[in-house]
Specification:
Blueprint lengths: L2 E7 L8 E6 L2 E8 L2 E6 L13 E3 L2 E3 L6 E3 L5 E3 L8 E2 L1 E4 L2 E6 L1
Antiparallel strand pairs: 1-11, 2-3, 3-4, 4-9, 5-6, 6-7, 7-8, 10-11
The protein binds FE2/S2 (inorganic) cluster.
């Protein structure tokens, strides 16, 4: 049964910004991509860089450690050295609250 958890207020991130959120022991990267919130696993599949601290340009986030790139809207890897995608998590809004659905 999926569990929905509030992780932010809708005003918290401006377009192009991201942050790390820890929810129930899961580390997530939350991004505002052109006004829409998306969440992916925070841990880079290369050697564990924090994607929530990476630079976001459009929908591409760059890992702060060695520069792998991921699609913040889907978790797909776009550029090495990482080779594997990260998981993405459904995001929903209710009023001013941003929720993430955990499994
Ligand atoms: S840990 Fe992310 S590119 Fe190396």
């Amino acid at each position: 049964m999926p569990k929905t958890v509030k992780v932010a207020d809708v005003t918290e991130l401006q377009p192009g910004e991201g942050k790390t959120v820890d929810v129930e022991g899961v580390s997530l990267a939350l991004f505002n991509v052109d006004g829409t919130y998306f969440a992916i696993a925070n841990t880079c599949t290369h050697v564990g860089g924090s994607l929530g601290e990476g630079a976001l340009i459009g929908k591409e986030v760059t890992c702060p450690l060695h520069g792998a790139q991921f699609d913040a809207t889907s978790g797909k890897v776009l550029g090495g050295p990482a080779r594997n995608d990260v998981k993405s998590f459904p995001v929903s809004l209710e009023g001013d609250d941003v929720f993430i659905e955990l499994e």
